């Protein structure tokens, strides 16, 4: 069973609907025992970083997430804000500490003079490293739906398994051992997006 | 490259899909769910539903007709989101934070707010703070008034605001709108093409994505919206309701015009 973490942010129903469609068992929850029992964890979310961390704290979820993902090495998938929350720090409307699983910071697109709009909304291509188990067998270039104003600025480029271009290149998919994270919305990216969720479910 | 988006917009009235003309005439088309199931497999990039039901209006004529009412908007959101894995935006009759929360809980990804944004400008910022900017699309309906000037109208085109669309577009951007859904009341349902002057004016005055709607009669009008209007996304209602394989044809037309658009994808049933 996959636990979809409910921390009051974002559209969890979309993720649940996509997993249901694929026939994958999942549960939307913020119950610590249920998260402990789950085989895998998805942290979805849209919205502000600060609110996200605050809610994870309020619901006492940080400890259980650290334990299950970092110590017990359960497969984890962060989606959109869920990808950003696993970073060390975010500069979205202030400075906030994240879960710190990835040595990276979350920064705003600076596109001045480039005539690019923020938020980055829509379908964009991702150059995929097919050696990652959630990408294997797919196309080298895949198109996913993005909607975000901030991106993950990462030091260790070796954990990036998918790059996207908007102004400059930014990480769209990262993988560090059992930790996977995507900046786009696989649950909203039709066939190629659903394929990522399906592969994650078989890890 | 970020692709231009093609977005069917479905207008709903009391649970039925309708064809809209100049915001005042509405022809019933039938089941909003059957339509969306066709659209999903046809590679639309997103979907917008606008509920134009009036709270105090009930269409009694439908009781004896074949088209069964789909009930309330929440049922429609739930049904659509179970099979449609593209971004779903719902607008209409949103008055409170709770209204947005409930739509998202049922499976919407974004909402369009319109009249409430004008009545209570703080609502834009409040909702953006709770749900994130990307979730809040502000709908701007524009009509050429008796002085032959562009003016923003709310209340589904019935209430004059005295606001110029450029002033209003800048204001909603400043207050936290993630996108603007721009509709031309004069062009709605006329098939005369987009009001490019209006569109370009708004695109040039904000730095958030603009979705253009109103007036598309042939697929080439989408090209005008992107190339001349400069929008991030083109939307339309009627052309998708009345033309077979309309998404595929529209995408081919855009691709042939050299516009970077997401390729047509067949939805594979993984289940």
TrEMBL record, chain A:
**Could you tell me the keywords of this UniProt record?**
Amino-acid biosynthesis, Cytoplasm, Glutamine amidotransferase, Histidine biosynthesis, Hydrolase, Lyase, Transferase
Q: In which pathway does it act?
A: Amino-acid biosynthesis; L-histidine biosynthesis; L-histidine from 5-phospho-alpha-D-ribose 1-diphosphate: step 5/9
Which catalytic reaction applies to this protein?
L-glutamine + H2O = L-glutamate + NH4(+); 5-[(5-phospho-1-deoxy-D-ribulos-1-ylimino)methylamino]-1-(5-phospho-beta-D-ribosyl)imidazole-4-carboxamide + L-glutamine = D-erythro-1-(imidazol-4-yl)glycerol 3-phosphate + 5-amino-1-(5-phospho-beta-D-ribosyl)imidazole-4-carboxamide + L-glutamate + H(+)
User: What are its GO biological-process terms?
Assistant: L-histidine biosynthetic process
One Pfam family in the UniProt entry: GATase
Which Gene Ontology MF annotations are present?
glutaminase activity; imidazoleglycerol-phosphate synthase activity; lyase activity
Transmembrane regions:
none
Q: Where in the cell is it found?
A: Cytoplasm
Q: Does the keyword Lyase apply?
A: yes
Q: EC?
A: 4.3.2.10, 3.5.1.2
Superkingdom of origin organism:
Bacteria
Q: Where is the Glutamine amidotransferase domain?
A: 4-200
Give the main localization category: cytoplasm
Q: Tell whether Cytoplasm is among the UniProt keywords.
A: yes
List the active site: 80, 185, 187
Q: Name one GO cellular component term.
A: cytoplasm
Complexes and interactors: Heterodimer of HisH and HisF.
Functional description taken from the UniProt entry: IGPS catalyzes the conversion of PRFAR and glutamine to IGP, AICAR and glutamate. The HisH subunit catalyzes the hydrolysis of glutamine to glutamate and ammonia as part of the synthesis of IGP and AICAR. The resulting ammonia molecule is channeled to the active site of HisF.
Identify this protein by name: Imidazole glycerol phosphate synthase subunit HisH
Species source reads Candidatus Staskawiczbacteria bacterium RIFCSPHIGHO2_01_FULL_34_27
TrEMBL record, chain B:
Q: Which domain of life is it from?
A: Bacteria
Q: What class of enzyme is it?
A: lyase
Pathway given for this chain reads: Amino-acid biosynthesis; L-histidine biosynthesis; L-histidine from 5-phospho-alpha-D-ribose 1-diphosphate: step 5/9
Q: What is its EC number?
A: 4.3.2.10
Could you list this entry's UniProt keywords, alphabetically sorted. Answer: Amino-acid biosynthesis, Histidine biosynthesis, Lyase
InterPro entries annotated for this entry?
A: Aldolase_TIM, His_biosynth, HisF, IGPS_HisA/HisF, RibuloseP-bd_barrel
Q: Quaternary state and partners of this protein?
A: Heterodimer of HisH and HisF.
- Similarity annotation: Belongs to the HisA/HisF family.
Q: What does this protein do?
A: IGPS catalyzes the conversion of PRFAR and glutamine to IGP, AICAR and glutamate. The HisF subunit catalyzes the cyclization activity that produces IGP and AICAR from PRFAR using the ammonia provided by the HisH subunit.
Give the protein name, as stated in the record: imidazole glycerol-phosphate synthase
Taxonomic classification:
Bacteria, Candidatus Staskawicziibacteriota
């Amino acid at each position: 069973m996959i636990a979809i973490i409910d921390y009051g942010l974002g559209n969890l129903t979309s993720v649940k609907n996509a997993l249901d469609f694929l026939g994958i068992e999942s549960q939307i929850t913020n119950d610590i025992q249920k998260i402990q029992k789950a085989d895998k964890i998805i942290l979805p979310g849209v919205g502000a970083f600060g609110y996200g961390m605050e809610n994870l704290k309020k619901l006492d979820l940080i400890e259980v997430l650290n334990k299950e993902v970092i110590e017990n090495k359960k497969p984890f998938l962060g989606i959109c804000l869920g990808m950003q929350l696993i970073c060390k720090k975010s500069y979205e409307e202030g400075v906030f500490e994240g879960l710190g699983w990835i040595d990276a910071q979350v920064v705003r697109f600076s596109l001045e003079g480039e005539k690019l709009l923020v938020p980055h909304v829509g379908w964009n291509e991702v150059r995929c490293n097919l050696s990652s188990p959630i990408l294997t067998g797919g196309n080298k270039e895949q198109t996913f739906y993005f909607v975000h104003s901030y991106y993950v600025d990462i030091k260790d480029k070796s954990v990036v398994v998918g790059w996207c271009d908007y102004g400059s290149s930014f990480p769209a998919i990262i993988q560090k051992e059992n930790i996977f994270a995507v900046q786009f919305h696989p649950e909203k990216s039709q066939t190629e997006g659903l394929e990522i969720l399906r592969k994650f479910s078989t890890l | 490259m970020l692709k231009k988006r093609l977005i069917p917009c479905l207008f709903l009235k009391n649970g039925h899909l309708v064809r809209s003309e100049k915001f005042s005439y509405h022809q019933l088309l039938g089941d909003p769910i059957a339509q969306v199931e066709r659209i999903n497999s046809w590679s639309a990039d997103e979907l917008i539903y606008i509920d134009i039901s009036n709270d105090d209006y009930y269409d009694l004529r439908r009781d004896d007709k074949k088209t069964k009412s789909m009930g309330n908007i929440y049922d429609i959101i739930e049904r659509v989101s179970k099979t449609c894995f593209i971004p779903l935006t719902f607008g209409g009759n949103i008055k409170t934070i709770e209204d947005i929360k409930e739509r998202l809980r049922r499976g919407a990804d974004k909402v369009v707010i319109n009249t409430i944004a004008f009545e209570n400008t703080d609502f834009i910022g409040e909702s953006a703070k709770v749900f994130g900017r990307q979730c809040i699309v502000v709908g701007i309906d524009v009509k050429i008034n008796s002085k032959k000037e562009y003016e923003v109208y709310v209340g589904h085109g019935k209430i004059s605001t005295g606001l110029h669309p450029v002033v209003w577009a800048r204001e909603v951007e400043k207050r936290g709108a993630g996108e603007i859904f721009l509709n031309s009341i004069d062009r709605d349902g006329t098939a005369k093409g987009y009001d490019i002057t209006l569109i370009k004016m708004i695109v040039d005055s904000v730095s958030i994505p603009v979705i253009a709607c109103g007036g598309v009669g042939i697929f080439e009008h989408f090209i005008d919206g992107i190339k001349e209007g400069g929008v991030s996304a083109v939307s339309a209602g009627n052309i998708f309701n009345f033309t077979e394989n309309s998404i595929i044809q529209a995408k081919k037309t855009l691709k042939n015009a050299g516009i970077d658009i997401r390729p047509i994808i067949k939805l594979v049933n993984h289940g």
